[in-house]
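User: Hi! I'm working on a homework problem where we have to compare a predicted structure to a textbook description. Could you give me the structure for the chain below?
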Amino acid sequence: MKKYINSQSPFLKRSCLALALMLVINYGSISAQDTTKVVLAADTTERPADGKSKPVKNTFGSVWVMDNQTVMVPIKGTLEMDIQHRFGTVENGKKDVFGLFAPSNIRLGMTYSPVNKLYVGAGLTKERMQADINAKYAIIQQTMDDKTPVSISYFVNMVVDARDKSFFRYAVHRLSYFNQLLIARKITERLSLQVAPSFSWFNNIEGYVDSKGNIQNKMQNGHLAISAMGRFKVTDQSAITLGYDQPLTQHPANNPHPNISFGFETTTSSHAFQVFMGNYYGIVPQSNNVFNQNDYRNGQFVIGFNISRLWNF
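Assistant: Happy to help. Predicted structure tokens:
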């Protein structure tokens, strides 16, 4: 499989790589951390006994930041409901009220943490009538004494495309998969950064018949990508967010475009609300990474929002 770094924006690619480098090498002071009383996506580990390293709290305020997962995993016994909505692109302006009257996409999801460091969930997405099951596990967590400088979590899902059977030759063609390694660091009490390489796989992709009558794929089944994002708290309960998603795999045709996103987040002890703009219309991550054709250079941005509600049992 050939791989490439999309040449559309060298500046943005350099920024993405710089953000990843900062995440790994920045050992700024975190001695003032762990002061906030607002806990949404709580610690993924029990507080250790005195004398041992203590985990950093609240690297992010939610399991989501705009279009991407974060390293956060709610504590054991947490049930979470997510409502994620994407309007149409804003490029038509007042004709459709900047996409608000255009066809929209929505996902309803539920997750539960049966044990500390792990959650499992499921969701339904309007686009392509997708049904997903997913899980996330917190592998390691950043500590206040910097003995563990970063937090690392692993996210995986499996998606079933539930559209009419005329779209598929075999039932197995309905399936797609997504794997992502999430690496984050809380730089200061206000600033957190994350970089996350990912791999998507579709059992079935679009093809065409060439001049010799042979079926050729328009895209690869597998796709590599990388995302980078940051969150800066402006108050104890609100923050601004920035993100960039870069495709890495070269496809025979229909190469996806990168995603640039920016937004605002507010959280309480049991809620998170995020409103933002970006290029991704999809919500299921492999669909975004592989099929995104919205180009930021043409002003094809989408207004979106995420709402999360948590209950602890």
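For your comparison, note the following. The domain at 10-47+54-312 is CATH 2.40.160.40 (Porin). The longest helix spans residues 10-25. Good luck with the assignment!
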